[in-house]
Specification:
There is one protein chain. The chain is mostly helical. The mean pLDDT is about 90. The two termini are about 20 Å apart.
């Protein structure tokens, strides 16, 4: 994974942590998977034969980036959906 992508992931994680500290409403929190789980997901998908992934619950796209980076090796595709518009809007334009 290149340095620019790692910096974006770090920025998203910082944003989500700060955002989540301001609300107790689960439906408003970003609830990202975190770096350890992201790396684990990346490794699992890198070692798998999958080339297409459907992700439900995008939030800010943190896990989406880990998934996409793993699938990029073989020209794969990740499709991601976020049900809660406000979660997307909280991140839109931030990154």
């Amino acid at each position: 994974m290149d340095e620019r992508t790692l910096l974006i992931l770090k920025d998203i994680q910082q944003f989500a942590t700060e955002h989540d500290s301001r609300t107790t409403e689960k439906k408003e929190q970003m609830l990202i998977i975190g770096e350890d789980a992201g790396r684990f997901l990346y490794i699992l998908l890198s070692l798998s034969h999958y080339s297409t992934v459907l992700e439900l619950g995008t939030d800010c796209g943190y896990s989406t980036i880990w998934i996409a980076e793993a699938l990029r090796q073989r020209g794969g595709i990740v499709t991601t959906v976020e049900w809660h518009e406000q979660k997307y809007l909280n991140c839109f334009g931030t990154f």
